[in-house]
Amino acid sequence: MLHRGIRRRVGGASVVVLLVAALMAFSVDDRAGADPTRCQQHRFDARERSGIVTGEGPPVLVIGDSWSLGLGQDDLGSSWAARLPGEVHVDGFSGSGFSARASGCGRVSFHDRASTALGTRPHLVVVEGGLNDHDQPAAAIDRGFRELMADLAGHRVVIVGPADAPSRSGAVPRVDALLASLSAEYGVPYVRTSDLDLSYLEDRLHLTEDGHRDFGDAVADRITAVSPSRPTVIAG
Question: How much is the average pLDDT of 128-138?
């Protein structure tokens, strides 16, 4: 099983090299369809993170990808989502996105997981993602977004777009603009994060501990700014 805490100090240069190489192979491309073992690890991590609830107050559900999950951190519960106010529940799955084929691990898109995740009876649903849709056609992202909005009908929703991760920087403007446009069509607050200067791990895709803190604090502040009182409720 791959060790998630890639930032933990270990003795011996050879061990460090092996750990860095493993992370690069594991996370440069979260799409895992060709590796059942990797998909199994993603599912294990998803179950573990779903069991971690942080904060107090009105329940908040975060549906997201490896960033919400906390991939690369010693403690999955320290992912950026824990910086949000309220009783935060996370449904995260590494490699997943809005489009059905963002991940190769089966039916794990945001739409595919939303109905089950809503069992937490959230006061607010925060959907974070887009980086794993980097190579997906606009039509697939559009379809997945609309299916997700149907799932979330009757709920208050905020969409958090992709940050400018160096390894996928070229695709971020296209995905960011598409998600912003779709959010506006549905009247859903959209939080842009592509302007944030964040700290990344060696794979240039996932956040460091400081990166999670900075991203979480920025998202929390921006959610308040775009939706200071009652976020838009998705019409049925």
Answer: 98
> How do residues 40-49 score in pLDDT, each as one tens digit?
999 999 999 9
Is there a domain that residue 64 lies in? yes
Residue 185 lies inside a defined structural domain of this protein? yes
What's the 3-state SS for the chain?
CCCCCCCCCCCCHHHHHHHHHHHHHHHCCCCCCCCHHHHHHHHHHHHHHHCCCECCCCEEEEEECHHHHCCCCCCHHHCHHHHCCCEEEEEECCCCCCCCCCCCCCCCCHHHHHHHHHHHCCCEEEEECCHHHCCCCHHHHHHHHHHHHHHCCCCEEEEECCCCCHHHHHHHHHHHHHHHHHHHHHCCCEECCCCCCCCECCCCCCECHHHHHHHHHHHHHHHHHHCCCCCCECCC
Quick check: is 83 in a domain?
yes
Q: Domain with 214 in it: what CATH number?
A: 3.40.50.1110
Domain range for 122 is 13-226
Q: Is the pLDDT of residue 17 over 70?
A: no
| pTM, entire model | 0.85
The pLDDT value recorded for residue 226 is: 85
